[in-house]
Here is the input.
Amino acid sequence: MPLEKSWIESANSPETDFPLNNLPLGVFTADGVPRCGVAIGDRILDATGLEEAGLLRLDDAPVLDIPFWNEVMELGPEAWAALRARLHELLREGAPEKDKVAPFLHPLEGAELHMPLAVAEFTDFYAGRHHATNVGTMFRGAENALPPNWLHIPIGYNGRASSVVVSGTDIRRPWGQLKGPNDNAPRFAPSARFDLELELGAIVGQNSDGPVTVTEADEMIFGYVLLNDWSARDIQAWEYQPLGPFQAKATATTISPWIVMRAALEPFRCATPPRDVALLPHLEEPGPMLYDIALEVDLTPEGGSPTTIARTNYREMYYSSAQQLAHHTTSGCPMNVGDLLGSGTISGPTKESRGSLLELSWGGKEPITLGDQTRSFLEDGDTITLRGAAQGAGYRIGFGPCTGKLIPALSDPYAR
Here is the structure.
């Protein structure tokens, strides 16, 4: 698909994350009030204002009068398609209503951005083969790297929706129980092995009641965000057996502020990797369900310059978000509008493509270099920035940056 030209010149640049082909959805502050907006080039289009002015109507009643996109999700795929079609009509080159739309544009640079959705629930998966193999090799050896179930189901756990935050939010180093020299004698202290996880988040836009197929699951996905599932590896090492992560993953999960709708990614679909063993029929994919999205991670020390520490691609995943969502429903578990599914850490086959410091430093044994500094895990003042984009012919479908800065732990977490 070629670049779709807009009357907003900045949207026609091959360098922008937000051409007319993209039209990602977010929430921004205008005149002191959070409003629904659409990123286009170096501008934000006030979608709430368009609805109030009668230039954008998706339902008989207003659906953009609250600063989340959940009400639009509830309307279903036909309304999602109608939204994109109307935005394209208003913003395309030669649009007859250009003069009516222009007053609703705001500068993107310096804009205050907010959570683009009300997160109903959060589930994180462990569905990247390279990541699972690396972590398993570190702790169980190469021969037993993958648990017996890993090639048959996308492993996941239910996380905390309450600690999902938008890009730009500071992340405080957590306290927790850490294993001491004697496994039965932990200590309570700030995490010393705090880490990032490079992921893609899928946003569920429709409710379910009972199991759904992979095809149905794909149609339920409203869009995608970049996702950093911050992880306290030392807390996790003490708590994860027998039931898996708990407090190690509860500190925060950062998402990018723009939801890239599934329709914008359609030209970039690609297949999952070949299977070692056949999946059971209910998890088989009817067609390509991954996307060719180039991803990278920058680490910026306090007062320093950014270093790109990892480059990988979403196509490296073993299970797609549609498979993860379908698996989630097999027990009859209802899915809700606004549910967020983390893909699991996205790592590639090379050292430079590993999506976590745990892997990049091989558990701390091989620190990475940042100019005149090294890192095994994150230090106070470090800023992590995730970026991702699907590359088209003369344009890109980007997510914008997903950032978080690690700030020091409280001196006394129980001080009142």
